[in-house]
Automatic annotation (TrEMBL):
Protein name: NADP-dependent oxidoreductase
GO MF annotation list: oxidoreductase activity
Annotated segments matching region Disordered: 1-22
Enoyl reductase (ER) domain: residues covered: 10-303
Gene3D superfamilies given in the database record: Medium-chain alcohol dehydrogenases, catalytic domain, NAD(P)-binding Rossmann-like Domain
Length: 306
């Protein structure tokens, strides 16, 4: 099969389209014919070796943890799915080696759910990691009706989904983004504010404090929010370890079939959509990494396969 592989740590230039052996399908796994693979910042960070201290890597690596595709084979003991089922998932394994940037990938049923019928393959591939990150962050601090939620990085892949999930729960959402993305945030149901000096004053002009702060961008956002939240324990960051020292939480999303099913429900009920900023062919994975590294993407970057 064709796959993007990486022979050693490096940047976009290290990615090569190669022929790779077919995946083996073990117990409680299915073989997925990949239609689209999501691209996340963690892909190129892992590829550059930034996660070497916490995650084993076996080269050559096929990158990618987000997948949408069709089940084409079943391993032993898989009552959850049948051949032909359309699925999507966050397929992060214990060892980085056989990922989603390929024509086919084997994945555990605990990492998959049925694809949202209302979303295209490209949109569905953009949901799993970003959507679970947003959902698990929101659940961690129990976002509920009438909460005022400040989301940093609100126009990005995680943030744009977090805005919609919080709005669906009845929360008021204030989202930080560059000015060019303000209309986009309004379309999702958020009240936009700009990054930079004076952020706290701009938020206070909209609300007398916030109940929840969700940091999906890093870069000092948790410190910029320090005087805004009413309860520091309702602070979550996915990008800044200082959040824990401030009384909040640092979150790394876990694969979760139930969470994926919940995200699919929200999508099919019209409460969640995915903006795909770039959909590139598999062979252009290096270009996708470059775009992700630039940090100016609105919504998601995906690779199309087949």
């Amino acid at each position: 099969m064709k796959a993007i592989t990486q022979a050693g740590y490096g940047g976009p230039e290290a990615l090569t389209l190669t022929e790779h052996p077919e995946p083996k399908v073990g117990p409680s796994e299915v073989l997925v014919e990949v239609r689209a693979a999501g691209v996340n910042p963690v892909d190129w960070k892992l590829g550059a070796g930034y996660l070497d201290e916490i995650m084993e890597s076996v080269f050559p690596i096929i990158p990618g943890w987000d997948v949408a595709g069709v089940v084409t084979a079943l391993g032993p003991d898989v009552p959850e799915f049948a051949i032909g089922d359309e699925v999507y998932g966050y397929i992060r394994k214990d060892v980085a080696q056989l990922g989603a940037y390929a024509e086919r990938v084997a994945a555990s049923v605990r990492m998959l759910a049925r694809k949202p019928a209302s979303l295209s393959w490209e949109q569905a591939a953009g949901v799993p990691l970003a959507g679970l990150t947003a959902l698990q962050s929101i659940d961690r601090v129990h976002v509920a009706k009438d909460d005022t939620v400040l989301i940093h990085g609100a126009s990005g892949g995680v943030g744009s989904l977090g805005v919609q999930i919080a709005v669906a729960r009845g929360a008021r959402v204030i989202g930080t983004a560059s000015e060019r993305n303000h209309d986009f945030l309004r379309s999702l149901g958020a009240e936009p504010v700009s990054y930079g000096d004076g952020l706290a004053d701009r938020v206070r002009a909209l609300a007398d404090g916030v109940d929840v702060v969700l940091d999906f961008v890093g870069g000092g956002a948790v410190h910029a929010s320090a005087g805004l939240h009413r309860d520091a324990s309702r602070l979550v960051s996915i990008a800044d370890g200082d959040a824990a020292g401030l009384g909040g939480h640092v979150l790394w999303a876990r694969p979760d079939a139930a969470g994926l099913t919940e995200l699919a429900r929200l999508a099919d009920e019209g409460a969640l959509t995915v903006h795909v900023d770039h959909a590139l062919p598999l062979a252009e994975a290096g270009r996708a990494w470059q775009l992700s590294q630039e940090g100016r993407t609105r919504g998601k970057i995906v690779l199309t396969v087949g």
